[in-house]
Amino acid sequence: MFKKSKIDNAVTQLKQRFGDQLSTSEAVRSHHSHTTTRIPQQLPDAVLFAKNTQDVSEAVRICYENDCPVIAFGIGSSLEGHVNAPHGGVCIDMNGLDQVLEVNNEDLDVVIQPGVTREALNEYLRDTGLFFPIDPGANASLGGMAATRASGTNAVRYGTMKDNILALEAVLPDGRVVRTGSRAKKSSAGYDLTRLLIGSEGTLGIITEITLKLYGIPEVIAGGTCSFPSVESACNAVINVIQYGIPVARIELLDVVQVRACNQYSGLDLPETPLLLLEFHGSEAGVAEQAEMFASIAEEYTEYEFQWTSDEAARKKLWKARHDAYYASLAYSPGAVGVSTDVCVPISRLAECVEETYRDIEESGIISPIVGHVGDGNFHCMPLSDPEDDEMRKVIDGFIKRLSERAIAMGGTCTGEHGVGQGKQEYLRKEHGDAVDVMMMIKSTIDPKGIMNPGKIFPQN
Amino acid sequence: MFKKSKIDNAVTQLKQRFGDQLSTSEAVRSHHSHTTTRIPQQLPDAVLFAKNTQDVSEAVRICYENDCPVIAFGIGSSLEGHVNAPHGGVCIDMNGLDQVLEVNNEDLDVVIQPGVTREALNEYLRDTGLFFPIDPGANASLGGMAATRASGTNAVRYGTMKDNILALEAVLPDGRVVRTGSRAKKSSAGYDLTRLLIGSEGTLGIITEITLKLYGIPEVIAGGTCSFPSVESACNAVINVIQYGIPVARIELLDVVQVRACNQYSGLDLPETPLLLLEFHGSEAGVAEQAEMFASIAEEYTEYEFQWTSDEAARKKLWKARHDAYYASLAYSPGAVGVSTDVCVPISRLAECVEETYRDIEESGIISPIVGHVGDGNFHCMPLSDPEDDEMRKVIDGFIKRLSERAIAMGGTCTGEHGVGQGKQEYLRKEHGDAVDVMMMIKSTIDPKGIMNPGKIFPQN
User: Fold this and answer.
1) Per the CB < 8 Å rule, is B199 touching A186?
2) Average pLDDT over residues B57-82
């Protein structure tokens, strides 16, 4: 489909135009392909370090004229092979677009370039009393978070990227620059192209500017933990929390394997049984009320005590298990790498889905802690294996397939927040049926040459 | 573009297939065209009363085969000519699809057919402790609300239709039925076709099933009112409310003309100065805290007293001015009809936009109360005029044009919640620039024959 000679032409023209901003060194190309295990690396032919929208526009136009694939790159923390270059082509590194362009305190919004990371943004905002809440774990670029429709631990209160972007600027496949949305909080004027680009994983265009919603930093942040005799009892407590409309900021589940790993790694003595971790945002009285409401719900489902505090140091100690979960998992199986995967189901099916998954893990003979953003019905498994163990890798692939299909069968989705990339393509039609044809029609009309991040999202024939 | 003979063929085939479900009587056709003033009526050739998705699918396929326009119809409360048939064709009345299919209490969602109205849904839900909050004023069908991306008074807390729909079923222009989204609270699996259909005004397909988010009915609902010396002081108070993160459920502005009209109509003695009306949802302690926070903000900006109550009867009395606003406006200029129009701007520009609009109203010699969903920066003008007065109608058209362009120039949108329909087409490109081309590409690829609600949204050449 793509010709090496034409890609070479594009690289030559880009070199002429951009000089040292373009690299073809193997080290740089390797760094700009998939680096988060499981999916093998596929290197681009060149990497362009863009500095502004104009660079992106000109580079994309050169690629368009030469039928050359274009892959946008943030910080490379995506998990499903989103930044691989299966057909070669040019990777555009967006980290040079790292400016906060405009903070609008009165409107609670900020205009940024896509290379700004969420931590850099919050550091920039620290004197304004405002913050951007979405937290996928990694210090990802906000452009990447938009492109994969990311979320994380506090989506239960603040929503996902789709709920927190007001407007975008994007470079289309032919190099044209368009703007979608506006700083108005709502609009009924025309198709919602903003939401179409969010989650499109670089297959329709490259995001070059983002207008994000901001929130006031809560007066008080309280944290709490509570152990439960079973995943089901923990999930039932969560369902009650949501039904009562308690505005929890985070509500996380650690399964017994994860708790055991955290006890070992962080020297904790948590009961080896499922654990819920909570965070409340509000006024002093507000968080106390939320915590008391949670306590009265929890006592219906567990005899373990609910502990909570609004003291920052004590809160961080309570949440230590969650913060260390990733490293605790890796340490649990020394020398292993973790394959992070996620699904999301209606919350009423969550306990059933987690427990079936738990049995699957046991029967498959794999080690896989489970951590869940349970307020949304979203959970992550991280099967651990020796990176050289090809047999175990096949077992894990089979596990991920069953997990994805289980979630879809329960009315859920094969990915709550990681995206499709290369890793979840085979489930797209199982989940969306003929709607995939509509997605492909949109892809074909906006990107008729198929140069934007080819080999992603859509099942490859 | 559309041929009368082919439309006649479609109607004949539909008559054969659907018998008495199809009407060609003028009274029925007239009722199914635009009826909310300003934009002249344009009647369809026939009206089909659909009973289920299969009916819609078959009817659309017959229309597709005959290149016949198809217009979906809810209850006809749209304001910008959305249901007119400028090219004739077949109107599909969706009121027969009026079933609540599934209530999922644990997941806080409900699956409905699009002909269910918001009041019927909340009536159905009354014993569950749950409700659907979005309230555009009219008792609109939820299918129509989805198609126009509606919102209303409590969007400041609960968001708009775009934020409250999890999944859709829709009939495409060739009669195929597709499903978008799922009951999972979030997903990163593929393009967001749900959000693409929301606000597409029937130009891409007909929505035949909707999965909506629900909320627990608040333990306590409190209402309050506060007069302000100026629109600016009221808006500044609102900006503070939003910045402090007070989760107001509604925060409405009535301008001095509207207050005067309400005093006359409802026998009130409100100070003739801008008025804010508030509603708080939460626990007894929670609403008291919100009200106290508002009071302490308000006293910075006004010497008028903030009155509030959680007693239902007293609350309704406080809010009487708002509930009667529409009829009060009409009574203010006897024999007149009101032309309702809306815009939305970043909240920091709201006072400026309202005051410029106020001057424009005075200079134009028209009478137009202003009511605003000010927490979102969204406000409505309702110029009043004798329906026979063609001169005044031109003056009002000029006023709406200046209003729309003023909002766009301030970084806002020509419509916050009414939609584009026929009335706001000329502002689409001013607001979205070349992004309109992308919208048109999507329209052309999904609806290549252009049969779905033709003559809407996009500027007509």
Assistant:
1) no
2) 97
